[in-house]
Design a protein that fits this description.
7-stranded mixed sheet, alpha/beta, 4-stranded parallel sheet
Amino acid sequence: MNTPPSPPGAERTDGVSVQIGALLPLTRPGWGEAGQHLLAGLELAVREVNDVGGIGGRPLELVVRDTAADPRRAAAAVDELARLGVAALAGEYHSVVARAAAARADALGLPFLCSSAVLDALTEQPTEWVARLAPAQSHGWQIYADFLLGAGHSRIAVATQPSVYWASGARILRDYLAPRGGNVIEIDMSALAPADVCDELVENRATALLLLVGHPEPAVSIVKSVRRDPRLAAIMIGAPAGQPEFAEWATSLGKDGAAVPFLRYLPERLTPLGERVERALREELAEAPSFVAFEGYDTVAVLADVLRSHGVDRVRTAESWPRVAVEGTRGQIQFSRVPGISVWQWAWTPVQVVDRDPAEPDCFRVLHTG
């Protein structure tokens, strides 16, 4: 491995704690609810690590930085955390932000275990420094496409906004569905108001609308407009990126937010560890934990295992990715090289397509697994 020079202050000398830098979207325009769930999982795991002696007798400590969904802010945070001497980076939910963080981590030689971001090209070139728990977007969204086909949808509209992430998602769907008889119609939301989407759907005879847009807006307004249009009573609204996972969605939309299928990364049954963690997270969050909270917990579980086994040296941490074998909340975590993916990848996290039950919007129905 080519080792970049360490920035000034990269080695800790106080001997007190082992620090992990945590990148999280905690304020707007970041998805703050996702950030809070991710943080809850990270913090719970850190407490449990410290309850059993920390890392070689040294307490594990999170150094949290709010990215606010801003790639430049994330890159600056990586620079700062590297100078502070963190042993590794963890977290981030937004793919475009994680990509900026991964690029800086790679350049600085700072191990980064990405918790939640799914963009396939997390780095421009293959890197030894970055590993990821969440499944790549192409993997999860192809499973979603299979669900659409199985449900009888062949004319699928996607409401999109300018973003590398949304463009990647639209391309994955189009490339996967076209050879299988599916037609993807793109609706550019930078040129339309939410109410105008209805006419586009009718004109294109779409049977499904996928929300490849920001939350809460324009996603919430689009859903309200479509639900209130009698011409579209039979259309399915979907959100593969997972907007309906969080309570804010249900609060904003009520029954209108039910029956909107989305991707989540949970197995049919959690591991025994996962069941215990689920109870602890539910108490911590005062609500059911999302899959993002489990991603946070599993991130620290992996890093703690690596740091205990190989010490806090950054090079040795990055070299250890292919030797990881950790029982997580959702199964055994191991990393490998996957064709087309530039980072060390857990292949694959369990994937489900679920929605909120119209009869009980606080409950989820599993519609498809992959």
